[in-house]
Amino acid sequence: MKKSSTTDRIPDSPEAIERAALADPDAKPLTDAAFKRMRRTPQAKIIRRALNLTQEEFALRYHIPPGTLRDWEQGRSQPDQPTRAYLTVIARDPEHVARVLNRGRNQIPLVRLSIRLLLNGQLPSTRAPSSLNLPPPGKQGNGVSMKTTCL
User: Fold this and answer.
1) SS3 for 21?
2) Mean per-residue pLDDT for 128-147?
3) Which DSSP category does 130 fall into?
4) Can you tell me the distance from the alpha carbon of 66 to that of 57, in angstroms, rounded to the nearest whole number?
């Protein structure tokens, strides 16, 4: 049995490289039908990797449910047209989008607490501004109990 040297196995011309590639049963070129069946790499994954973020960090920063992001990246579902536009905006100016989305984020819990206390009559002034049209504490408004809808 003849042993082959490394120079026998590595083609040296472009034609020899192409012949060797076509002869390899594991490296056959894609047919048009096979190419059509393939899915594009989801754009969200490319953007996320370019920003050097984990799925959890990307989802949190851009207010995308982590399961949805995972489904997009694994090809189980695809973002709809408005979401693709949103991803394009993120790709073009990620810092601005994150800044706008997270502006005042630290103030939201305080606002929620104030609303809860107001609706339960626990604020010093239980009277809401008339422009809010809030029902008295514990009463129903628009057919929905305010206690259950309070954040």
Assistant:
1) helix
2) 48
3) G
4) 9
